[in-house]
Each structure stands twice: as structure tokens, then as C-alpha cells.
Amino acid sequence: MKISVIGCGYLGAVHAATLASMGHSVVGIDVDHAKVEQLARGAAPFHEPGLDELLQDGSATGRLRFSTDIADAACAQMHFLCVGTPQDKASDAADLSYLVSATRALLPHLAAGAVVVGKSTVPVGTVDMLRGVLGRRPDVLLGWNPEFLRQGTAVKDSLVPDRLVYGVDGGKAAAFNRSTGAPVGVAAALDAVYEPLLRAGIPRQVCSCATAELIKSASNAYLATKISFINAVSELCDASGADVAELSEAMGLDPRIGNRYLHAGLGFGGGCLPKDIRSFRAQATSHGVDAVADWMQLVDSVNLGQRQRTVDLAADLCGGTVAGRTITVLGASFKPDTDDIRDSPALDVADRLAAAGAHVTVTDPKAVNNAWRRYPRLRFEANATRALEEAELVLLLTEWDEYRRLSPAVAGSLVRRRVLLDARNALDAAAWQAEGWVVRGLGTSAAGGSFYPTDAPVPASA
Ligand SMILES: NC(=O)C1=CN([C@@H]2O[C@H](COP(=O)(O)OP(=O)(O)OC[C@H]3O[C@@H](n4cnc5c(N)ncnc54)[C@H](O)[C@@H]3O)[C@@H](O)[C@H]2O)C=CC1
Ligand SMILES: O=C(O)[C@H]1O[C@H](OP(=O)(O)OP(=O)(O)OC[C@H]2O[C@@H](n3ccc(=O)[nH]c3=O)[C@H](O)[C@@H]2O)[C@H](O)[C@@H](O)[C@@H]1O
């Protein structure tokens, strides 16, 4: 099928490349000339494992090309909208201006009966709004197919997704021919696009556009909820002498709970979860659903609280203040296996430490080039060994494999003081302690012995 993908960032570039790998003829359109030029050369403009190979295959087979000219989308019958929907500068709501301008730009190039499907994450009601933008083109079909890929595993997540969601006008009842049961309209077009995935047994759920929009928002809100829940509990663990890693491992063994997104630490960042929970909050508020709005507010504040908790713990480990201390931060990206620094918890913490007077060196295997210009207070060093030299405190803030594999003995020979704050609870604390390191984590610093306050009243039964 001839397909256009409008917006070739972290989502769109991967979507375009995976569609080409499924045998479709794809043109990716973006307004960013540098990005398009790089993609056209078969080089991903960001670090995403497996993407370079897919781009090169697509270009070698002639099935994948990129352009800055929206007129090049005219050859396609199917168009995927993948532009950004960042947080509005003045509120919690999503900024839909890129979506509106991309749809307006596409409008004059739509063939008769074309299908336009959005993949960007949007507030409920966006499809209805865009139908207005499409205006006098009742022949054009519009639907929503939210995306659930994660950066760092985006190629695999696209080729083997957990599920496909199709939001179509009229929902499930309108998506299939009453007598034959065959899909029609947007559902039929999406089935044709994803035929190899459906053949492999990937489940697809067909629903109304409003439901599809909310499935995506609610999914990210739930993931964020799980993370903030365990992080709130981690604070209780610290206050009571329990260990959150052992706690979450045991909780996760219950299949009704599961252990994924139950890893306590510095919390979530990135270009999606933070802005999506704020957008969800704004949606709930505008629909008068206070419970969801309050819930999202709490999830957000617990998450941001983890950053200050880490800064406070760093000060404790430096004897009360970080001012004048030499600190090394391992990790700058918002999670491992990506160079994306959007709302990176690691950089936020590093910058707060520098603002408090510490001399902070940040190292990262991939994200240094993205970060150094935006954080003038921080010193960047791509080489972890050099970054560790003379440190009085080491913070692990993004758990790249390279840092998980660090030898405590070698690291110990580089630093001035063997003090480690593992804010991702990712390292083997015992192995580091055996090399003379003082190790603290978030919710994992139970020092053995009782934390029962000595002045607490003795229970009557004791
Ligand atoms: N990054 C991710 O892992 C995922 C992102 N999403 C959603 O996908 C959407 C895009 O996110 P990202 O790819 O991360 O953002 P991004 O910022 O990396 O990419 C957006 C791209 O759209 C381009 N663009 C803006 N206006 C345009 C226009 N009028 N015509 C053509 N191109 C235009 C930009 O130049 C940029 O390259 C967001 O709604 C996000 O929430 C959904 C699932 C996963
Ligand atoms: O809408 C999106 O853009 C995407 O957002 C997330 O994907 P992503 O942000 O790429 O990365 P995740 O692996 O979900 O991690 C998000 C953040 O949560 C943190 N995290 C994750 C898991 C955990 O147990 N604890 C934790 O703190 C990570 O360090 C990271 O900062 C969702 O997982 C995807 O399903 C969704 O498609």
C-alpha cells in the first residue's frame, strides 16, 4: 500500500521504517530539513536500537523515502499523523497546533477517498476537532490508531506490539459489514496496513474514536500511577526501615499485580508520560471528573518529589550541603538506550545540585551531545572513567548497562570518596559495599537492625 507518515520524530521515523519493512511503499514527511536529510541517508537522527538497519533496508529496497514537501504525500491513499503533541506552554493541556497545521497542509493533497489516521497521543475529542479541519472533504475517512511503543525498544515494539487499537467513526458496530462481517472503511484500511501483524496473531481492538483516544491516555496514566505508587511506598520503606526492592519483587509475584513498572527510583521522565498525565488531568478537569484530575496531580507530585528526595539525600551524603563538592552523575537521558533528554529526571537532579553549588560532571553513553548546550551549569564528559575521577559523591541516575557493569573496585580507584547514591536501585549494593563504598538508594537503604523509634509507645500485647 502507498502510505505517508507526517512527522518523523521518535514515533514517526520508526513507524515509517517498520511499515516499509512490512512491504509498504512509504514516504515520510517532516518540516525539519536536517532530520529529513539524515533519514534519507539511512541514518536515524536519534539513538534507537535497530532503526538504522531498518532505514537502510527501506532505502535499499526503494520502499522508503523522506521529504520536506507535503505535496509528496499526494501519491498515498493512507496517511498517518505522527507529529508532536507537547504540553502547552501555559497550561497542563496538550498543544494540538502541530496536528492542526499538519492536517491543514495535507488537505489539498488528499486523493478522493483517502484515509487519514492519527497516531499521536491526543486528548479525547481531538478527532471531532480535526474533522472540522478536514471541512468540506466528506469523502476522506478519519480514524485514530494510538501507538504504545517505548523508546529504546521502539522497533521491536512496533514489529511485535501487544495490541493494535483502531478508533473509528461509530465504533465497532460500524466497522464491520453486517452481513459478511468483513471490516469496512478505516478498519479495513488499517487491517490491510497491519496484515502481517494480524496474521502473526497480534490482537486488535476496534472501538470509537473517543475510546481509542482515552485508551492511550489511560494506559500512560496507569503506567505512571504504578511508578508513583511504588515510589510513594519507597518513601515509607525509608521511613520504616523496610526495603522497597524486596517489597516490589514479592508484590510482583502476584500475577494480578505483576512486577513491571513497579521499580522504585528516581521516577519517570521523557517526552510522553509527564506531559500525558498532565493532559489527562486537563481532560478530566474539563469534563468535571475531579477524581481523575486529583489522581493525576498526586501521581505527578510524587514523581517530581523523587527528584528533590534525591537532591536531599545527596546533601545528606555530603554532610549537609553539596556546595563546593565534586559530584559525578552517571546518566543524562530520561531512560537507558535512548539519547532523548526531554524532561530527563537525571538532568533535572544534576542541575539542581549544580544550582546548590556542587561541581557536577555528567556522563552518558549517548546523550551528552543533546544535553551540553542546554545545561550550561553542568560539565559533560562522555567517558565514564574520566567522569569519575576525583568524585566525592557518585549518583547513578540513568541505569545504562554500562553503569550496571561498572566494577566497584575500578570505580573506587578513581574517586576521592567511595560514596554512591544509586537513585535507580540498579546496582548490587552488597558488591559495592564489599569494596568499601557507602551505598544509599531510594527505599532500599535499610541499614539492618530495628527502625522502631525508641520513644514509640510499646504495643499493649508486647
Ligand atoms: N516518543 C514515543 O516513544 C511515542 C510518542 N507518541 C506520541 O507521538 C507523538 C509524536 O511524538 P515524538 O515522535 O516523540 O515527537 P517528536 O518531537 O520526536 O516528533 C515530532 C515530529 O513532527 C514534526 N512536525 C511538526 N510539525 C509538522 C508538520 N506540520 N508537518 C510535518 N512534520 C511536522 C517535527 O519536526 C518532529 O520531527 C506525540 O503525540 C507523542 O505523545 C506515542 C507513542 C510513543
Ligand atoms: O506514549 C509514549 O510515548 C510511551 O510512553 C512510555 O514509553 P517511554 O516513555 O518510551 O519509556 P518507559 O520505558 O515507559 O519509561 C518511562 C519512564 O518511566 C521510568 N520508569 C519505568 C519503569 C519503572 O518501573 N520505573 C520507572 O521509573 C523510566 O526510567 C522512564 O523515565 C510507555 O511505556 C509507552 O507505552 C508509550 O507508548
From TrEMBL:
UniProt-annotated binding residues for substrate: K216, Y261, L262, H263, A264, G265, G269, K335
EC number of the protein: 1.1.1.22
UniProt entry keywords in alphabetical sequence: NAD, Oxidoreductase
GO molecular function: NAD binding; UDP-glucose 6-dehydrogenase activity
Residues reported to bind NAD(+): D30, K35, T85, T121, K275, R342
Main enzyme class: oxidoreductase
Active-site residues from the entry: C272
Keyword Oxidoreductase: yes
Superkingdom, natural source: Bacteria
Gene3D superfamilies registered for this protein in UniProt: Cytochrome c1, transmembrane anchor, C-terminal, NAD(P)-binding Rossmann-like Domain
Domain UDP-glucose/GDP-mannose dehydrogenase C-terminal: 328-429
SMART domains named in the record: UDPG_MGDP_dh_C
GO BP, sorted A to Z: polysaccharide biosynthetic process; UDP-glucuronate biosynthetic process
Pathway membership: Nucleotide-sugar biosynthesis; UDP-alpha-D-glucuronate biosynthesis; UDP-alpha-D-glucuronate from UDP-alpha-D-glucose: step 1/1
Reaction it catalyzes: UDP-alpha-D-glucose + 2 NAD(+) + H2O = UDP-alpha-D-glucuronate + 2 NADH + 3 H(+)
Transferase as UniProt keyword: no
Alphabetical list of Pfam families matching this protein: UDPG_MGDP_dh (PF00984), UDPG_MGDP_dh_C (PF03720), UDPG_MGDP_dh_N (PF03721)
NCBIfam families recorded: NDP-sugDHase
Family designation: Belongs to the UDP-glucose/GDP-mannose dehydrogenase family.
Protein name: UDP-glucose 6-dehydrogenase
Organism of derivation: Pseudarthrobacter equi
Biological classification of the source: Bacteria, Bacillati, Actinomycetota, Actinomycetes, Micrococcales
